[in-house]
Design goal:
heterodimer; A: 339 residues; alpha/beta; Rossmann fold; five-stranded parallel beta sheet; B: 1128 residues; FAD/NAD(P)-binding domain; Alpha-Beta Plaits; 8 domains; 56 strands; 29% helix; 23% strand; globular
C-alpha cells in the first residue's frame, strides 16, 4: 500500500472490466477506512475478499498466501509455529483448561500465541481476570486458528470446515462467553461464526477489560503518570465500535494525559497488518511507520493499543525509525496499575 | 368578501404563491414561523447564474406582500390545527408575541442598549445579534422583535431590564403582548415551508466542527454579503486573515447513503457561483472537488464553462480534511488514480438540503403524507400535489430546488388552490384626495445617510446646504435612513405641511427604491410621477470611498440633476385597459393540458389549440417518464381525463395562423378560420427531439436513439447495449436537456432486467430531480457499467464506433478499451421549435433558440411581452413533471390578469403631436412592438397597450416636437445635462444608461464597491434607443470631456432589438462629429449587463483616462464647432 494508499476506484474498475488485478488485490489491509467515507455504502472489503477468492481459484494468489493456508492446515496457525508451542506463554500460570467447564473462554489467537513480545500482555490479562474472579479457561494447544487469514485469502471451503470444528469445540466447554485477545478473531466470531450458529457472547478483550473495571471487579491504583496516546485498531474501532472501551478507563488516572493522534477513533489510520499483509512483503514506507510518526508527534511517551497485529507493527516501526516511544497493550498497562 | 387561502411558509415560493393568489382576488393568510418573510433567499448574497443580488430582487416582492391589502402576514406563527375538507377548512394558528408594535421606526437605538448578545441565526451563527433585533435590514414586516428566550425580562410579571423600553422614542416596545390564537376559514392551503441545511458535523471525514476555517456554503454566502457579518470581506475565521487558497467540496451529505441519499440540486451551481465570487475577491487559487457537475438549468453550463478559466475543477471526494499547522490538509484521489494531499487555507462544504424542522408535525396537522426522503409527498404525478385534495405544496417543501423552480411551483400550487376560490375581491385603501400641484414648483429634498453608507464618504450636511440654495427648493432634510417606515410617514407629513409639489430623494437606486417613494408620495396625495431620485449611494459614495471631497461635489451635482429634472416633471396617471376574459393555450402537450385544465377549472373560458389530431404531445411517443415510476400513457390518460372533465374548449388538428393585439386584447386566427379574442396567451408549443447525425445514425440499423428505444422495447434483439449520453446536448450553444439522464438510467435498468449487458458513456450523471438519484444507484447496483468520456468534447470525438464495437479510453484504469456492441443507443436531448407566432408576438429567444423568460430567477414562466406566458419545453428542455408545473403556473399568471378584468400601465408611452407630425412613419418602422400604426402621409396612431416605452421612436424622429416621451422628455434630459456640466464640464463624462442593464450594472459596481474615478454623471433612460442625436449633440455643446452611451448587450435588450438602433446611431454620430472636427473618440458606446459592475467601472476608468489625455483647448472648442447643429 505504501504512501500512495490504495486506489480502490481503480481496483474496482479493473475488476469490473476484467483487467488483471493480481498485483493490487492483495494490498488491502481490510482496514475499512474507505467504507467509512463511501457515500454509496459499498461493502468494499467484501468485494475485495470476493475478488481474492477468484484470484485464488484461478491460482493467481501469491505463493506466501498459499503457504499460509498450508501452514494453518498443518499446524493450526499461519505463522508456521509448532502445535505444541501454542500455549507456551501460559507455562507456570496454572490456567484452567476451558474443557473443564468455565464461564469464559479466553481465546488467545495465533498472533499473540506465537509472538514472544506479546506473552507479557497475555499474562497481564490472565492476571487481571483471575483477580477479578472471572471463571475462565483457555483452549491450550488445542486452540486452532480462528480462520481469519483463510477468509482473507479467499478460501471458502476450508474456512467452512474450520469454523464448524471450532464452534463445536467452543460449545463443548459450556462457556457462555468467549473473550478474544485479538480483535481480528473477535470479529470472526461475531460475524462468520455467529452466522454459522455460534450462540456464545463474544467480546474483544478491551471491551471485557473495560467492563471489569466499570463494574468494579478490579481495583485500579491511580498513581500512573505521563502522556499516552491511543492507537485504535481497525477491528476495535471500525469493526467493533469499541473506541470508547480504549479510552474510558484513562479517566481514572488523573496524572495520565491522553493525547489524540491526527486521526483517531473511526478515522484512525491502520497499522497496515490486516488482510494477510503480515504474511506478504511490501516495499517502501509502511503504514505503521506513518502511524508511529503520528504517535510521536503527540509528544506522548507511550502508545496504547489492543490488537496483537498493531502491537507488532508499531513496535517494529518504532525500532526501525528510531522513534522513542513505548508500545504497550492495554492489558499490560492495566496490569501494571492494579491495586 | 373574498374567499381565503392559507399559505404556510414565507420564503420565495410562499411569497410568490401569496402574491399570485392575492392578485387573483383571493384573501391570503401567510403564516411564517420566523420573525420575517423572505426565507433562505433573503440570506443569499447573489443568485446563480445571473449574479443578481438576491435580496435586491426579493425585497420588492417582500414589500409587495406586506403592502398588499389582500394578504395578512402572520409572523412568529404556526398552524396548529386543520379541520374540515377542501373548500371549507377551519384552521387554528398560534402566534407568538413580537413584543414590538408597528410604531417601531427601525432606528436601532434599542439594539445599542440591549445587553444580551446571541449568535445571529440569519448569519448562520457567523455574526451576532442582540435579544432585541431585526433579522436583517430589509426584513418584512418591519418592526424589530424581541427573542424572549434571551431577553433578561420574563414578561408579563418579571421586567428587571428596561433598557430598550427607555431607548425607544415611539414607545413601540410592549412586554404585555401575549400569544394569540387565530381562527380562520380557508378554501385551500399551500404549503411552502422550505428546507433546512444538513448539520455538517455529521460528516466526520470533512472535519467541519473541528476547525473554524472549514465552513459551510451558507456561512460563506453570509460572509460574501456586503451587509453580512464581515461586511463582504472573505476572512479565515481562525485568524481574520484573507485566505489565498480555498477548496470547495460538493455533495457534503448529499448523494450519501449514510446521510442524505438524494441530490440537493442547487449545491453545484451555488458552489460554482461562490467560487467565481472568490476569484473576483482576488483569491487566485480556488478548487472545486465534485462528483458530477449538475448544471442542468438555463445558462448553468455556460456559467460552469466560463468559471473554468479561473476555477480548478477536480472530480473527486476528500477522504480526509484535517488541520496541519497553518493549513488544512485534504487527501483525495483523482480520476487517473493518483492520491493527492493538498494544503488549503479554507475549505467550504456544500451541505445538503434536508426537510425543514417541524415538517413531520405539520404533515400530521395537515393530514398529508411524507415521502421516504422526509419531504412532503406528491400524491399525483405533478410536483405540487400532496396526498390530500385542497392542500398543495410548493418549493423546497417537496424536495430541494432552485429559485425559479420554487417560484414556478409557488404559482403552480396557487393554480390548484384557486380552483376552490369562488368569491374574489381586490382590497384597496381609497386614495387620498389629490394635492393641487399647479403653480411654481415647490421642491422638497430628502437626503439619506444610509447609516454610514453615504454619510461615511459624502459630506451630507454640505450637500444639504448647497441644494438649499437652488431655485424652487423649499425644504431639505437629512435622514439616517430615508426609506425607514417612520421616515416615510414623516415625508408624507412634510409634503402636506410644506405644500410640496415635487419630491426628490437623494439616496440609493431608483431601481430598488423608486416605487417605495412613489408610494409615499401617493399616500400624501402627490402624483407619483412628480418624484425623482438621485442614486448617491450606488453611484457615488460606494464607488469613490477614498475621494471624499470629489464624491461630495458629485453628490451635489447628482441631486441638482434630479432637482432640475423634477422642475419639469408633470403629473401623469396610469393608463387602464379592459381585458378580454378568455385564455388561449397554444400546444396540447402535458404543459398545455395542465394550463388549459387549470385555467378553465377556475371558471375562465379557455381554448386549447393542438396541431395534431390528439393531445399529449411527446407523451404519445414515450413511456419512460422517469424518475416517475408511472408510464407515459398512464400520465397522459389522467391528464386527458382531467382535461375532458374541465370546460376547456379543445381544438385538435388546428394551428394558430396569426396573432395580433396586445396584453388583455389579443386576437388569434386559427387554421380553420375561427377567430378567438383572448386576454392572455399561454405558449406551450413544446420542443423537438434532437435528430442525430452522429455515429452513422440513420444509416446503421444498430444505432438507435433513446426515443427509438421507447417504440420498440420488446422487439429488440441483441445482447450488448452501449448508451451514449448528451448526444446533441451540452456542446457549443446547446445546454443540458435536463430530462435525459434519468430517462437513460431507466432504460438501462429496463434493459438490464431483460438480461442485457449495458454500458453507459456519460459526461456527468445529472439525476438532480426528486427520486432520480435512486435510479443512478439502482442502475449501478444492477451492474450497468459507467464510463466517463471527455466532457469538453462532443461524444463522437471521444468515442469511436466501427459498427460493432465502441473504442474508448478509460481514464480510471488508464487503458484503451474496445467493447462489443449490438445496439448503440444515442441518448438525445431537445431542440427548439420555430413557430411563426413567436415573431408575431415579438417573443425573444435565448442563445439556444428556446423562448426567453422575463427573468431567469423570478419570472420563469412569463415572457417579456406582457400577457404572454411560457410553459413546458418551448421555454427550455425539461421533464414531464416540470412541464406540468409550468403549465399550472402559467394558468395562475393568466388568471390573475383575466380575473381583474383591467390592467394598469405606467404612462411612459410617447405622445404624438399630430399637428407637427408629418406621418412619415419612421417611428413606426423602428418600433420593436409595432405599437405605432398608420399610413404614410395620411394617418398615425399609437396603440398604448402595445407600447413598452423604450423611446426608440422618439430618437428616430427628426421633426422637432412631433413625438415626445413623458418622464424622459428632451427638455428633462437636457436640464440634467445642464446641471451635470454646470461646473468644470471639461473634466466630466456624461453617461447615458439604460434602466435595465447598464444602469443596473452601474448599481452593481456600487454593490460590489468597485472604485472608479468620480467624473461620470449618469442620466437614466428606459432604453439606450431613447438617446437621440439632438441629446448627444446638446451634451457636446456643453463642452464635457466625453459622452458615453451605454445599454444592454446585443440580444439582451429589454425592448427586443431596440439597442441595435442605438448601435447604428452612435456610429452615425461619430462620423458626424468627425466631420465637424470633433474627436469622435469622445463619443463611445459600451454594453454593460446588469451583472457587470466591473465592466462598467473599467469603462469609466478608460474614459476618464481619455478625458485626461485631451487638452482643455480641444474640449472647450467643441461648442463652437457644433454651432448651428444643436437645438434646444
Amino acid at each position: 500500500m505504501g504512501e500512495e494508499g490504495m486506489d480502490v476506484r481503480n481496483l474496482m474498475r479493473r475488476a469490473q472490466i476484467g483487467l488483471d488485478i493480481s498485483e493490487k488485490v492483495w494490498n488491502c489491509s481490510t482496514c475499512k477506512l474507505c467504507e467509512e467515507s463511501c457515500p454509496r455504502q459499498v461493502s468494499i472489503v467484501n468485494v475485495i475478499t470476493g475478488l481474492r477468492q477468484l484470484e485464488l481459484e484461478e491460482q493467481k494468489a501469491p505463493d506466501k498466501i498459499v503457504k499460509l493456508l498450508w501452514d494453518i492446515y498443518e499446524t493450526g496457525n499461519p505463522w508456521g509455529g509448532k502445535k505444541g508451542d501454542r500455549s507456551k506463554w501460559a507455562d507456570g500460570l496454572n490456567l484452567k483448561d476451558a474443557k473443564e467447564g468455565t464461564d469464559v473462554i479466553l481465546y488467545v489467537g495465533c498472533d499473540a500465541a506465537y509472538n514472544k513480545n506479546l506473552h507479557k500482555s497475555l499474562r497481564s490479562l490472565t492476571d487481571i481476570m483471575k483477580r477479578a474472579g472471572v471463571n475462565f479457561g483457555i483452549l491450550g494447544n488445542e486452540e486452532k486458528c480462528c480462520g481469519e487469514p483463510i477468509r482473507n485469502a479467499g478460501e471458502k471451503y476450508y474456512l467452512d470446515d474450520l469454523v464448524h470444528e471450532n464452534i463445536a469445540q467452543f460449545e463443548k466447554t459450556g462457556a457462555q462467553t468467549v473473550v478474544a485477545f485479538s480483535p481480528h478473531c473477535g470479529n470472526m466470531f461475531n460475524t462468520v461464526y455467529k452466522k454459522r450458529g455460534l450462540k456464545m457472547e463474544v467480546k474483544n478483550y478491551s471491551e471485557f477489560l473495560n467492563s471489569l473495571i466499570r463494574d468494579d471487579k478490579v481495583k485500579i491504583e491511580n498513581g500512573a503518570h505521563g502522556k499516552i496516546t491511543i492507537h485504535d485498531p481497525c477491528y476495535v474501532s471500525r469493526y467493533g465500535d469499541g473506541s470508547e472501551d480504549l479510552r474510558e478507563m484513562f479517566t481514572l488516572f488523573p496524572e495520565v494525559e491522553v493525547k489524540e493522534m491526527l486521526s483517531s477513533g473511526k478515522d484512525s489510520l491502520c497499522c497496515g497488518g490486516g488482510g494477510n499483509r503480515m504474511f506478504i512483503d511490501f516495499e517502501g514506507k509502511r503504514l505503521s511507520d506513518f502511524r508511529i510518526e503520528q504517535a510521536r508527534d503527540t509528544g506522548a511517551d507511550t502508545v496504547i493499543t489492543a490488537c496483537p497485529i498493531c502491537n507488532m507493527n508499531l513496535l517494529d516501526s518504532a525500532k526501525i525509525n528510531g522513534v522513542k516511544i513505548q508500545v504497550k497493550e492495554l492489558a499490560e498497562f492495566v496490569g501494571e496499575n492494579l491495586k | 368578501m373574498a374567499d381565503k387561502v392559507l399559505v404556510i411558509g414565507g420564503g420565495i415560493a410562499g411569497i410568490q404563491s401569496s402574491l399570485d393568489l392575492a392578485e387573483a382576488g383571493t384573501e391570503v393568510i401567510l403564516v411564517e414561523k420566523s420573525a420575517s418573510i423572505g426565507g433562505k433567499m433573503a440570506a443569499l448574497d447573489k443568485n446563480f447564474p445571473t449574479f443578481d443580488c438576491s435580496i435586491c430582487i426579493e425585497a420588492p416582492k417582500m414589500s409587495d406582500v406586506t403592502h398588499n391589502k389582500n394578504i395578512t402576514v402572520l409572523t412568529l406563527a404556526e398552524v396548529k390545527e386543520v379541520k374540515g375538507t377542501e373548500g371549507n377548512f377551519e384552521i387554528t394558528i398560534n402566534q407568538k408575541p413580537r413584543f414590538v408594535t408597528d410604531a417601531c421606526t427601525r432606528c436601532d437605538l434599542c439594539v445599542q442598549v440591549c445587553p444580551q448578545v446571541r449568535k445571529n441565526e440569519f448569519d448562520a451563527g457567523v455574526g451576532a445579534r442582540k435579544a432585541i433585533h431585526t433579522p436583517f435590514s430589509q426584513a418584512e414586516p418591519g418592526p424589530y422583535v424581541i427573542d424572549i428566550e434571551s431577553c433578561l425580562n420574563e414578561p408579563p410579571n418579571y421586567l428587571p431590564c428596561g433598557r430598550c423600553t427607555d431607548a425607544c422614542g415611539p414607545e413601540a416596545i410592549d412586554f404585555n403582548m401575549g400569544p394569540k390564537v387565530i381562527k380562520e376559514k380557508v378554501v385551500s392551503i399551500v404549503v411552502s415551508t422550505g428546507f433546512d441545511l444538513f448539520n455538517a458535523s455529521l460528516l466526520h471525514e470533512f472535519g467541519y466542527s473541528s476547525d473554524p476555517d472549514i465552513l459551510t456554503s451558507y456561512e460563506l454566502e453570509r460572509m460574501l454579503n456586503a451587509s453580512g457579518p464581515t461586511d463582504g470581506e472573505i476572512i479565515k475565521p481562525s485568524n481574520g486573515k484573507h485566505p489565498e487558497k480555498v477548496l470547495f467540496v460538493l455533495c457534503a451529505g448529499s448523494r450519501d447513503e449514510r446521510l442524505v441519499p438524494y441530490c440537493s440540486r442547487t449545491c453545484c451551481m451555488y458552489s460554482i457561483k461562490e467560487a467565481s465570487q472568490l476569484v473576483e475577491h482576488g483569491i487566485k487559487d480556488v478548487t472545486v472537488l465534485y462528483m458530477d457537475i449538475r448544471a442542468y438549468g438555463k445558462g448553468f453550463d455556460e456559467l460552469y464553462s466560463r468559471s473554468q478559466k479561473d476555477v480548478k475543477y477536480i472530480r473527486s471526494r476528500p477522504g480526509s480534511v484535517k488541520r496541519k499547522g497553518d493549513h488544512i490538509d485534504v487527501r483525495y484521489a483523482t480520476d487517473d488514480g493518483s492520491l493527492k494531499v493538498e494544503s488549503y487555507d479554507m475549505v467550504v462544504l456544500a451541505t445538503a438540503s434536508i426537510p425543514s424542522k417541524g415538517t413531520g408535525e405539520l404533515a400530521k396537522v395537515l393530514g398529508i403524507e411524507l415521502s421516504s426522503d422526509g419531504f412532503f409527498k406528491n400524491g399525483q404525478e405533478d410536483p405540487v400535489s400532496t396526498t390530500r385534495e385542497g392542500v398543495y405544496v410548493a418549493g423546497c417543501a417537496s424536495g430541494p430546488k432552485d429559485i425559479p423552480d420554487s417560484v414556478t411551483e409557488g404559482a403552480a400550487a396557487s393554480s390548484k388552490a384557486l380552483k376552490f376560490v369562488k368569491n374574489r375581491e381586490w382590497i384597496e385603501d381609497p386614495p387620498p384626495p389629490p394635492l393641487d400641484v399647479s403653480g411654481e414648483p415647490r421642491i422638497g429634498v430628502f437626503l439619506c445617510d444610509c447609516g454610514s453608507n453615504i454619510a461615511g464618504t459624502v459630506n451630507v450636511p454640505h450637500v444639504k446646504e448647497e441644494i438649499g440654495k437652488l431655485p424652487n427648493v423649499v425644504y431639505v432634510e437629512e435622514n439616517k435612513y430615508t426609506c425607514a417606515g417612520g421616515t416615510q410617514d414623516s415625508i408624507v407629513e412634510k409634503i402636506k405641511e410644506k405644500k410640496l409639489n415635487r419630491v426628490v430623494v437623494g439616496a440609493c437606486s431608483p431601481k430598488t427604491h423608486g416605487v417605495t417613494f412613489q408610494r409615499v408620495c401617493s399616500r400624501a396625495g402627490l402624483n407619483p410621477y412628480l418624484f425623482e431620485m438621485a442614486n448617491v449611494r450606488n453611484m457615488d459614495s460606494w464607488v469613490h470611498k477614498s475621494e471624499k471631497g470629489l464624491a461630495t461635489e458629485k453628490a451635489v451635482d447628482m441631486v441638482d440633476m434630479a432637482v432640475s429634472k423634477s422642475r419639469l416633471l408633470t403629473a401623469m396617471n396610469d393608463i387602464e385597459f379592459p381585458v378580454v376574459r378568455t385564455g388561449l393555450v397554444i400546444g396540447g402537450g402535458p404543459a398545455g393540458i395542465a394550463a388549459a385544465t387549470s385555467l378553465s377549472n377556475m371558471g375562465i373560458e379557455t381554448h386549447l389549440i393542438e396541431k395534431s389530431d390528439r393531445v399529449g404531445g411527446l407523451l404519445n411517443s414515450i413511456n419512460t417518464v422517469s424518475p416517475s415510476p408511472a408510464k407515459g400513457e398512464e400520465i397522459l390518460a389522467r391528464l386527458e381525463r382531467e382535461l375532458n372533465k374541465s370546460s376547456a374548449i379543445v381544438h385538435t388538428s388546428t394551428t394558430v395562423k396569426e396573432i395580433t393585439g396586445f396584453v388583455g386584447n389579443f386576437s388569434a386566427t386559427l387554421s380553420d378560420g375561427m377567430k378567438i379574442d383572448a386576454g392572455a396567451i399561454i405558449i406551450a408549443t413544446g420542443a423537438e427531439p434532437y435528430q442525430p447525425t452522429e455515429f452513422g445514425y440513420g444509416n446503421n440499423p444498430a444505432v438507435l436513439t433513446s426515443l427509438d428505444l421507447e417504440k420498440d422495447y420488446s422487439k429488440l434483439e441483441g445482447e450488448k447495449y452501449a448508451i451514449i449520453s448528451c448526444v446533441g446536448s451540452r456542446s457549443g450553444e446547446k445546454g443540458c436537456s435536463r430530462f435525459c439522464c434519468s430517462t437513460m438510467l431507466q432504460q438501462a435498468i429496463d434493459l438490464k432486467e431483460k438480461g442485457k449487458t449495458v454500458r453507459i458513456f456519460y459526461k456527468d450523471i445529472r439525476t438532480y430531480e426528486r427520486n432520480a438519484e435512486d435510479l443512478y444507484r439502482k442502475a449501478g447496483s444492477q451492474g450497468v457499467q459507467f464510463f466517463r468520456y471527455d466532457p469538453l468534447k462532443p461524444p463522437d470525438q471521444s468515442l469511436e464506433f466501427d459498427g460493432s464495437s465502441v473504442t474508448f479510453v478509460d481514464e480510471l484504469s488508464s487503458s484503451k478499451i474496445k467493447a462489443p456492441v449490438d445496439h448503440l443507443v444515442l441518448n438525445i436531448g431537445m431542440k427548439p421549435r420555430a413557430e411563426e407566432i413567436f415573431s408575431q408576438l415579438k417573443l425573444s429567444r435565448d442563445m439556444e433558440g428556446f423562448l426567453l423568460e422575463s427573468h431567469p430567477k423570478l419570472g420563469p414562466v412569463e415572457a417579456a411581452v406582457a400577457g404572454v406566458f411560457l410553459a413546458g419545453t418551448a421555454q427550455g428542455p425539461k421533464g414531464v413533471k416540470e412541464s406540468m408545473a409550468q403549465g399550472y403556473a402559467t394558468a395562475t399568471k393568466a388568471a390573475k390578469l383575466l380575473f381583474r378584468g383591467k390592467i394598469n400601465k405606467e404612462p411612459i408611452i410617447p405622445q404624438i403631436d399630430k399637428e407637427k407630425c408629418v406621418k412619415c412613419l419612421r417611428c413606426a418602422d423602428v418600433c420593436p412592438y409595432s405599437a405605432i400604426k398608420g399610413e404614410r402621409g395620411k394617418w398615425i396612431e399609437l396603440v398604448p397597450a402595445a407600447c413598452m416605452g423604450c423611446g426608440n421612436c422618439v430618437a428616430e424622429c427628426n421633426i422637432e416636437g412631433a413625438i415626445s416621451m413623458p418622464n424622459f422628455t428632451d427638455s428633462q434630459i437636457m436640464t440634467q445635462i445642464d446641471a451635470a456640466t454646470a461646473e468644470k464640464p471639461e473634466e466630466k463624462l456624461v453617461v447615458f444608461a439604460c434602466n435595465w442593464c447598464s444602469y443596473a450594472g452601474a448599481d452593481q459596481a456600487g454593490i460590489s464597491k468597485i472604485q472608479y474615478p468620480p467624473s461620470a454623471r449618469v442620466i437614466r433612460t428606459m432604453c439606450s434607443s431613447r438617446i437621440s442625436q439632438k441629446l448627444v449633440m446638446y451634451a457636446f455643446s456643453k463642452n464635457p470631456g466625453a459622452v458615453l452611451v451605454t445599454g444592454c448587450h446585443i440580444n439582451d435588450c429589454h425592448y427586443i432589438d431596440a439597442n441595435e438602433y442605438t448601435e447604428k446611431r452612435v456610429d452615425r454620430w461619430k462620423r458626424f462629429l468627425e466631420a465637424k472636427k470633433v474627436n469622435p473618440d469622445r463619443l463611445q458606446l459600451w454594453w454593460v449587463s446588469a451583472a457587470e459592475g466591473n465592466r462598467f467601472a473599467s469603462k469609466i476608468r478608460e474614459m476618464d483616462a481619455l478625458i485626461k489625455s485631451l487638452s482643455k483647448e480641444e474640449i472647450v472648442s467643441t461648442e463652437s464647432k457644433l454651432k448651428g447643429v444643436v437645438r434646444r
